[in-house]
């Protein structure tokens, strides 16, 4: 009975289907998700000499982020030994740390489904907004917590082949059927039951929109207090790039389709802004989280993100918590950026093999880097020796 019910639901709410884990920080223009018939990305065993830039990076800069991840990973059998060894390590010189990884880990290069080894690397950051606990003429745009009527269905509970897929929707009172949740336009027009779900009100709708893309941020209140907001849930619709939409409509040249370029367009076209934002039907709900001045927002792994060392990945390919060596370039530059990162987050637009989002941290400089980063890159995942890869991670179409 349940299988027939879900089978009837899937065609109705397919747009609400997302891959777990669910946090949706940030993201810049998305990469097209491969169809079900496309060859899957894979992890191909490699060698340390083949990891581009491995011997030049200082692993000390990523060590604390790795240890933070071990706080979660140490409870998993595959990670117990390496995490225990790391925690007990006393000599933290670059050569010793590099030797630790070379001794205890095996590098795997991420290969796309089409056999290529290069993909899109974008950036995200933790923004600062200005708001109030009470609305007024300045603070008019609510930041909502998750609504009570938002349903999340784990499809893998019914169809094992759809493991790690979720469907979001709501129960229609008239038909008693689960239907897709309200999209952005409907939510903005008051269709969703969000009264009393307001966390704060902010003063800028475009900043609020980008907060939803980033997935977390801080709000400086009119009282002088600063609070932190973290991802709580999402309405189930896939992310669509408003920058790409402006380019396609001829309203913004491609080279200006950055976060700053979109904000400038919004200032000059306030009458068109609501329509543009509604083009992205995806809507993110938040929760208030503790402010830890020493750490970033909590990512999908459940640990605070580290500026310039945490990476958002497609967790169906790259295991969360794994070290990832990234070979790319600085934003809008050909200056090489090759360093050890940690897969500690996910994102709504981060889908596919060689696809990642670089966390730049908090503040103006981080915003500049994140808003302009759209680089090519290669990725190597470092996994404990003997780590058992899933069939999806190793299968390759012949």
Separation of termini? 38 Å
Morphology: globular
| Count of β-strands | 18
CATH class annotation: Mainly Beta
- What is the typical, i.e. mean, pLDDT? 88
| Main sheet attributes: strand count, strand direction, barrel closure | 6 strands, mixed, barrel
CATH topology value: Barwin-like endoglucanases
The tally of helices reads 11
Strand-residue proportion: 25-35%
| Lateral arrangement of strands in the main beta sheet | 4-17-14-16-15-18
CATH architecture: Beta Barrel
Order of helices and strands: HEEHHHEEEEEEEHEHEEHHHEEEEEHEH
- Write out the CATH superfamily name: RlpA-like domain
Query: Into how many domains do the coordinates divide?
Result: 1
Q: Using the CA coordinates, give the radius of gyration.
A: 21 Å
Structural class: alpha+beta
Helix content: 25-40%
Spans of 5+ residues with little confidence (pLDDT < 50)?
1-36
Kindly describe this structure.
With 398 residues, the protein is an alpha+beta fold. It has a single domain, classed as Barwin-like endoglucanases. Helix 2 packs across helix 3. The longest helix has 14 residues. The protein is globular. The N terminus is likely disordered.
